[in-house]
Design goal:
- It is a single chain.
- The protein is an alpha/beta fold and 380 residues long.
- The chain has three domains: 72 residues, no CATH class; 240 residues, Alpha-Beta Barrel (TIM Barrel); 37 residues, no CATH class.
- Helix content is 28%, strand content 15%.
- It is built from 13 helices and twelve strands.
- A nine-stranded mixed beta sheet has the order 1-2-3-4-5-6-7-8-9. It has a three-stranded antiparallel beta sheet with strand order 10-11-12, with no helix packed on it.
- A hairpin with a 5-residue loop joins strand 1 and strand 2.
- Bound molecules: pyridoxal-5'-phosphate.
Length: 380
């Protein structure tokens, strides 16, 4: 078997292995030594590996193969390789920026809105994103062994919560679970008669597209109506492999939508976002949200000023099919829900914060330096 450092298949035998999602997960690269075998690591990336308390690093051989081997500004590298600032606390940053712990009536279940809940069914992800807003990865907040008492508790909660119509599977990445486990979870949810739509929120089509097998697709389609929500952040991620995964899901009748995270230096560019949207529409994925970065610990290096974010998205109108225009959403810190960002949502601002009005009328502060040096590349 080849070493983990060589991402692309070298011969027919390897080719078969690299298409196996379990092989991808078991051959993830985690250290400077492993990643340095394929990439010319920068000083900063190397320093990132050295810092204490670094959130875990994991990169599938597939995702590694999308990286530029020499350029540390590569948008794929920026999303997955560590940085010394990953452990720095920027202004207003928290471990749990969306107050999910307080909105959790039982472990693994987040109930913030009247009609929909999130179930955290898996701990692992194929790739550990540096911008993850749940990077705390506290096992006590997970349903954990999803087939055990955790799932039992969640189902009995949902039976009593008759206003809930929608359940979102998240984690971690739900598609790190085996098909049988997913089938069991989805089957249990379908015993609750008032649940209408199920959603699976996953980055697997981006970071490990070979996970989307025919068998998995059948399991998901059998539990429909089920929406698959992906997280493509850059057009480079819409590869032939990703297109195959999305096509398979779409052919099975599973509607697809995408949530991108707006990341400075990765996708904070109007023309690039337009390219991303076009690429997604081409693989039958409808752009849904573009998220203003949550103020999670260690994320400042990616944050864009909200004014620049709004300008970027409003600039898409007219230049791009309306089908390709996502809603710019700011998830109000503390767990007050998502706010569709338009000037009218901003009720006040200081040099360091912007105050937004939520759907329930709460006024919530978001840390926003408005630093003019941090602008996005809007439009020429
Ligand atoms: C984002 C989120 C949802 C889903 O919100 P939509 O606007 O319907 O996509 C539901 N529950 C929680 C806790 C969330 O964070």
């Amino acid at each position: 078997m080849r070493g983990p450092g060589k991402p692309r298949a070298q011969n027919a035998h390897d080719h078969v292995q690299a298409r196996d999602w379990r092989w991808q997960l078991s051959h993830r690269l985690r250290s400077a030594r492993e990643l340095g075998a394929s990439l010319e690591l920068s000083e900063t990336e190397r320093a990132g590996f050295e810092v204490k308390g670094l959130p875990p690093v994991a990169v599938t051989p597939y995702y590694l193969s999308l990286m530029d081997p020499v350029d540390p500004r590569c948008p794929i590298r920026l999303q997955a390789l560590p940085h010394p600032q990953d452990v720095a606390r920027g202004a207003g940053e928290r471990e749990d920026p969306l107050g999910e712990r307080e909105r959790s009536p039982l472990p693994g279940l987040i109930h913030r809105y009247p009609d929909r809940v999130v179930l955290l069914v898996a701990a692992d992800c194929p790739v550990m994103c540096r911008h993850c807003n749940r990077r705390r990865r506290d096992p006590r907040e997970l349903l954990g062994a999803s087939l055990g008492p955790g799932m039992e508790g969640a189902v009995s909660y949902l039976r009593g919560a008759t206003g809930v119509r929608e359940v979102i599977l998240s984690g971690g990445d739900p598609l790190t679970l085996e098909d049988a486990a997913l089938e069991e979870i989805l089957g249990r949810l379908r015993t609750v008669p008032h649940l209408e739509v199920l959603r699976v929120h996953t980055r697997a089509p981006v970071t490990c597209p070979m996970r989307v097998t025919d068998d998995l697709t059948r399991v998901l389609a059998a539990a429909g109506p089920l929406y698959v929500i992906t997280q493509f952040n850059h057009p480079k991620e819409v590869t032939p492999e990703a297109a195959l995964a999305c096509g398979r899901l779409a052919d099975a009748g599973l509607p697809l939508a995408n949530q991108s995270v707006l990341l400075r230096g990765v996708n904070s560019d109007g023309g690039l976002l337009a390219d991303l949207s076009r690429a997604l529409l081409g693989v039958r994925v409808r752009p849904y949200y573009l998220f203003q970065l949550d103020p999670v610990l260690g994320s400042e290096r990616f944050r864009t000023p909200i004014e620049a974010s709004m300008e970027l998205v409003s600039g898409l109108r007219g230049r791009l099919s309306g089908l390709g225009i996502p809603t710019l959403a700011l998830d109000a810190p503390g767990g007050f829900g998502k706010v569709a960002m338009a000037r009218s949502a901003v009720v006040a601002r200081t040099r360091t914060t912007v105050t937004v009005r939520t759907w329930q009328g709460d006024l919530v502060d978001y840390p926003d330096t408005g630093d003019p040096d941090l602008t996005c590349q809007a439009w020429p």
